[in-house]
Structures are given as C-alpha cells and as structure tokens.
C-alpha cells in the first residue's frame, strides 16, 4: 500500500531532481566517458583498465622499481583486479615479471618493448578521446582538473 501523499516528493532528497545531484551527475559523466574510452581503445585490443595499468607501469617504471602492489596503489585499482589485469597483460607479452632486486620474495613488473609501443599509441588515443569528451568545458579545463584533484585527494 502506497502511503505517500500526492504532495510528497518521490524520494526523500534535498534535490529537486537528479540533474542537481553532484553524485548522480558524476556517475552519468563517468559512465559516458568510460564508454567513449572503451570504444576508442577497442581497436588496440585494450580495455580501459588494461590501458591504465600499462600506462602507469610505463610511466612509473622509468622512475622506480614497480611491484604489483605498487601499481595498485598508483592506479587506485584493488589488489585482486590489479592481479588479474597484470596477468592478462603478461599473457599478451606487454608486461613481464622478474625477480625484485631488493626483495627476492617479490616480483618486479617490467613493461616489454611491445607493451611500451602499445602504451605510446594508446595514450595518444586516450588523450584525443579526452579532448573530444571535455571539449564543452575546455575553457575551464584547469579548473575542472583542480576540482577533480581535490576530490581524488581524499580517495
């Protein structure tokens, strides 16, 4: 039995509708952005998650010895998912595991030359897709980045 009065809002929210909810809008924008990135990376044979791990390993692998745990920390991807993605990229010969120079129990993640070449091609595609997606706010891209950095800081 519906006990809602005709004058009651359909949901107990402080917003007059979803278009005013920052969380709902972020969810919609995030889904739209992810769909475009998936479509752009598909011809390269990469998922967006694979791209993130491969790009991170390529970027940071030049600066530090990377482990799977460290890649997860850098990307914000949970350990189980990081493990699955690293394993898939390793089977594709884009990453390899080697003995860690400082810890014989750990494995160092190294990007192969094929992985580096793919990451270099993929980052161009991802950045072009970003530019097209964010074109509507291009005049305030710096402001958007600062807002996103503030939100990511607490993550």
Lay out the secondary structure.
Elements: H1 22-41, H2 48-61, H3 68-75, H4 79-91, E1 95-99, E2 107-111, H5 113-133, H6 141-153
Antiparallel strand pairs: 1-2
Helix pairs in contact: 1-5, 2-3, 2-4, 2-5, 3-4
What can be said about this structure in brief?
The chain is mainly alpha-helical and 155 residues long.
3D structure, described in words:
The longest helix is centred in the C-terminal third of the chain and has 21 residues, at 113-133. This protein is mainly alpha-helical and 155 residues long. It has 6 helices and 2 strands. β1 and β2 (107-111) form a beta hairpin. Strands 1-2 form a two-stranded antiparallel ribbon. It has a domain at 46-153: Winged helix-like DNA-binding domain superfamily/Winged helix DNA-binding domain (Arc Repressor Mutant, subunit A, Orthogonal Bundle). The chain starts with 21 loop residues before the first helix and ends with a helix.
Features:
single chain; 155 residues; mainly alpha; Arc Repressor Mutant, subunit A; two-stranded antiparallel ribbon; 57% helix; 6% strand; elongated
How many strand units?
A: 2
- What CATH architecture of the domain at 46-153 would you give? Orthogonal Bundle
Distance between the termini: 41 Å
Q: What is the CATH domain class of the domain at 46-153?
A: Mainly Alpha
**Gyration radius, to the nearest Å?**
20 Å
Taking strands numbered 1, 2, ... along the chain, how are they ordered across the largest sheet? 1-2
How does the helix and strand content classify structurally? mainly alpha
Low-confidence stretches: none
CATH topology title of the domain at 46-153 = Arc Repressor Mutant, subunit A
CATH superfamily (homologous) name of the domain at 46-153: Winged helix-like DNA-binding domain superfamily/Winged helix DNA-binding domain
């Amino acid at each position: 039995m519906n006990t809602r009065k005709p004058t009651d809002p359909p949901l107990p929210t402080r917003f007059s509708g979803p278009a005013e909810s920052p969380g709902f809008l972020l969810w919609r924008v995030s889904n739209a952005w992810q769909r475009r990135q998936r479509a752009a990376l598909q011809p390269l044979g990469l998922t967006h998650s694979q791209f993130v791990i491969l790009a991170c390993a390529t970027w940071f692998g030049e600066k530090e010895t990377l482990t799977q745990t460290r890649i997860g920390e850098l990307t914000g991807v949970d350990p189980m998912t990081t493990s699955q993605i690293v394993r898939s990229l390793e089977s594709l010969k884009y990453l390899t595991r080697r003995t860690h120079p400082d810890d014989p129990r750990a494995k160092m993640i190294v990007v192969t030359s094929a992985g580096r070449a793919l990451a270099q091609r993929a980052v161009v595609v991802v950045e072009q897709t970003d530019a097209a997606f964010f074109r509507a706010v291009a005049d305030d891209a710096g402001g958007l980045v600062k807002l996103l950095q503030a939100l990511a800081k607490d993550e």
